[in-house]
Specification:
The complex is a heterodimer.
Chain A: E1 7-9, E2 16-18, H1 19-50, H2 59-92, H3 101-123, H4 141-170, H5 180-210, H6 219-253, H7 260-273, H8 290-325, H9 334-337, H10 344-367, H11 381-408, H12 417-443, H13 466-499, H14 531-556, E3 560-561
Antiparallel strand pairs in A: 1-2
Helix pairs in contact in A: 1-2, 1-3, 1-13, 2-3, 2-4, 2-5, 2-6, 2-11, 3-4, 4-5, 5-6, 5-7, 6-8, 6-10, 6-11, 7-8, 8-10, 8-14, 10-11, 10-12, 10-14, 11-12, 11-13, 12-13
Chain B: H1 19-45, E1 54-56, H2 59-73, E2 74-78, E3 83-86, E4 93-99, E5 102-104, E6 106-109, E7 115-121, E8 126-131, E9 135-139, E10 143-150, E11 155-161, E12 173-178
Parallel strand pairs in B: 3-6, 4-7, 6-12
Antiparallel strand pairs in B: 1-10, 2-3, 4-5, 7-10, 8-9, 8-11, 11-12
Classes of the chains: A mainly alpha, B alpha+beta.
């Protein structure tokens, strides 16, 4: 039986924490940060090797470190954190007990064991197959086994989340519909089930193949199913990250969505269309028809893109509306100028939104065009793109939330607040450099996952233009800045959890959640409530259109292909 | 606590939508339709479309076909490794072999003439990346892709591998001359 002593009310936010859920949230969040640290250190190795003037690691170690970097940050950091977010959005926001904490513990341990098994396997050196582990190149069994165990653990966590929703509804802990942020988390969780199922469908046979029970795995089939896992996992991130954006708009500004219908409808589009976008990894593969590619990347993907573009308007739009309602109603951008840029929860979230949209979103759609993919596929443009979406978009959004969770969930005061104030900028600017310079080098043909662009030892090496070397050098320098930003985050958080002043049940000396704004009457210019955001959105759309057609022009200049 | 708590009005789906949101949704929808139109449009008017012609094959069968072309049309060899330089007739079928860690053989093609280029791997996955033209195509073992290529500028082109294929990945570089 659940009793009142199992709950804690946060004196600052009024949030109700179920203690077993709280412990699991803390553990998952801490595990996430630890894997971010590991993955980040590996990322430094990658960056310093691809910086041509430094070229730090030997080839075998480079590929090992690159494999480890990808898996630790793209899978382990992100999914551990997402489990914490799921428990927060169900148990905490719905003010209800976590369903079956024992199963949640089992899920957590499986995820930890899986992550360690996979890491050990990679560090042993015989599993440097990259995150994608394309057959017929094979890793050691522990590589696949670790991922499978991790996925099973994550699946259990997702079902604990669903169970908690059922408990909340049964026990009537809330009225009406679930909060918007919880709705976003449900979307993320539904995509997660699809993702993990796809992962199991491809990784279990691959493990059996490695162990000798299956004769062969078709490489084309592997790629299609693997990407139903690999790309959909990024859609979990998008849904979770957008939910976090909405949460922070409320936490920092007391904002409410402009309209529930639009925001929820946009979330729903993610479920309906996003996972099909996996097809854009297969655009230059043999054996898949143009019709299939176009269907999946236009009808399916553009409706999901539309969802992100809607959130891209409604999240800053709700912030603008809340700020205007508070009196920052002058001109186009007073609301933005007077935003709390020194609060890392806000600055990290806003950088996440801008960089995700302008760098990650536009480049992602452009390279997802069937024909334009021909001039981008597997160049370093691709990691350039996803360092803007996941490394900057998702990671910064999660960092933003973490800054808020330190006092609210962990009841600790942040240490070194002046450093924390700068951390999102250091990380965000460094990572934007990583993205932009890699994308630039990619348009010159520099390959991804490649140890030496000078191709030493090749019988007839290709001589890349000097600009490509310069861009890779700049990317390397940006990596150093980003890693400093990332390391600062890990140290600040771990440091605060260990040494930050304990807050206990005392109220914090400043508000941890803004007073809610209840209506948006009488704000804005003329009939437009959020003119600033709309202007920004038009700049975005214009950049998008220009960049899209520039790439068609670039494509038209190359060899004829038919 | 508005995004963190249930909507205050239970029947939230009947509330009016903000005007700016409607304008934006309309713009985004139009843009999506334009982008959707561009792909089939380029299939009709554009000159750069990846072919859909692909077959299942085996390394042995593919290698035999590649060897036949090399035996017939080799004009010289290059480098210490004696790479054959093959000058095939315009419009003919040419077979590029991807294997650890080379692209074999070297071709000499005529500018503005078309050739049916076949691509397949003998072992792991590889990435055909033609530089500086920057054309990138995935190459899989067991699959044979046939793409008609029309070089539009003369010069020396390199084929680098951009799908990770093991420790010698960075040494996997081939060549195409266009004269």
């Amino acid at each position: 039986m659940t009793t009142n002593t199992d709950f804690r009310t946060c004196p600052d936010t009024g949030l109700l924490f179920h203690k077993p859920a709280e412990t699991l949230m803390k553990l998952n969040a801490v595990a996430a940060v630890v894997f971010l640290l590991v993955g980040g250190i590996m990322g430094l190795g990658v960056g310093l090797t691809r910086w041509p003037a430094v070229h730090l690691l030997p080839a075998d170690l480079f590929y090992l470190v690159l494999t480890s970097h990808g898996i630790n940050v793209l899978i382990f950091w992100i999914i551990f954190f997402e489990v914490a977010v799921l428990y927060f959005c169900s148990s905490t926001l719905l003010r209800c007990r976590l369903a079956t904490p024992r199963w949640a513990w089992l899920g957590f341990f499986l995820m930890i064991i899986g992550a360690i098994t996979n890491n050990v396997s990679v560090l042993q050196g015989q599993s440097s197959v990259m995150m994608t582990s394309y057959v017929p190149m094979a890793a050691e069994p522990g590589f696949y086994l670790g991922l499978i165990l991790f996925a099973v653990g994550a699946l259990i966590a997702v079902f604990v989340f669903f169970g908690t929703l059922v408990v909340a509804r049964e026990e009537r802990t809330y009225e009406g519909s679930v909060p918007l942020v919880t709705f976003g988390a449900i979307v993320a969780a539904i995509i997660a089930v699809f993702t993990i199922a796809s992962g199991a469908i491809i990784l279990i046979p691959t493990l059996l193949w490695k162990l000798g029970y299956i004769a062969s795995i078709d490489p084309a089939m592997y790629r299609i199913i693997w990407w139903a896992f690999g790309h959909s996992s990024q859609q979990i991130n998008v849904a979770a990250q957008v939910a976090v954006w909405y949460a922070i708009a409320t936490v920092v500004f007391g904002a409410k969505p402009l309209s529930e219908k639009v925001s929820r409808g946009a979330f729903l589009l993610y479920i309906l269309f996003l996972q099909l976008a996996s097809a854009h990894h297969i655009l230059v593969d043999p054996g898949v028809s143009s019709e299939w590619k176009i269907f999946n990347t236009s009808y399916a993907m553009y409706l999901a893109v539309m969802a992100s573009m809607i959130h891209g308007l409604t999240v800053p739009g709700s912030i603008e509306a809340a700020q205007r309602k508070r009196g920052f109603d002058k001109g186009l951008f007073e609301w933005l100028r007077k935003a709390p840029w020194g609060n890392p929860t806000f600055s990290a979230m806003f950088l996440s939104l801008i960089i995700f949209g302008f760098l990650g979103g536009i480049s992602g759609v452009v390279m997802g065009v069937e024909q334009i993919n021909l001039i981008i596929h597997n160049t370093i443009y691709v990691p350039g793109h996803f360092h803007a979406t996941v490394a900057t978009g998702t990671t910064l959004a999660f960092m933003a939330l973490t800054y808020w969770l330190v006092p609210v969930l962990f009841r600790r005061e942040m240490i070194f607040k002046n450093v924390a104030k700068w951390q999102p900028y250091i990380f965000g600017i460094g990572m934007s450099g990583v993205s932009l310079f890699m994308m630039g080098a990619g348009t010159l043909g520099v390959p991804r996952r490649h140890w030496d662009m000078a191709m030493s030892g090749a019988a007839m090496p290709y001589d890349f233009p000097a600009t490509a070397y310069t861009l890779m050098g700049l990317a390397g320098m940006s990596v150093v800045v980003a890693v400093i930003g990332g390391a600062l985050f890990c140290l600040l958080i771990v440091g605060s959890l260990l040494f930050g002043k304990k807050l206990g049940n005392q109220k914090y000396h400043e508000p941890l959640i803004a007073e809610p704004i209840t209506d948006y009457e009488g704000i804005g210019m003329g009939k437009i409530a959020i003119p600033g955001t709309f202007a920004l959105a038009m700049v975005f759309l214009l950049s998008f259109v220009l960049y899209y057609f520039v790439n068609w022009k670039y494509l038209a200049s190359t060899w004829g292909l038919s | 606590m508005s995004t963190l708590s249930p909507p205050p009005k239970r029947i939230w789906w009947n509330e009016p939508i903000e005007r700016v949101e409607l304008i934006w949704i309309a713009l985004v929808l139009i843009w999506g339709l334009i982008m959707t139109f561009m792909m089939p449009y380029w299939h009709v008017v554009g000159k750069q479309n990846l072919s859909n012609e692909a077959y299942r094959t085996t390394p042995e069968v593919y290698m035999a076909k590649a060897q036949a072309v090399v035996d017939k049309y080799t004009i010289r060899t290059e480098t210490d490794r004696q790479y054959p330089v093959v000058k095939p007739p315009v419009g003919s079928d040419i077979y590029l072999v991807a294997r650890l860690w080379e692209w074999w053989p070297i071709f000499e093609l005529e500018v503005n003439k078309s050739y049916r280029l076949h691509l397949s791997s003998m072992d792991w996955q590889h990435g055909f990346s033609l530089q500086p033209a920057n054309i990138n195509i995935q190459v899989l073992p067991g699959y044979e892709l046939v793409v008609t290529v029309t070089p539009n500028k003369s010069g020396e082109y390199s084929i680098i591998c951009n799908e990770f294929c093991g420790i010698g990945h960075h040494t996997m570089v081939g060549k195409i001359y266009v004269k």
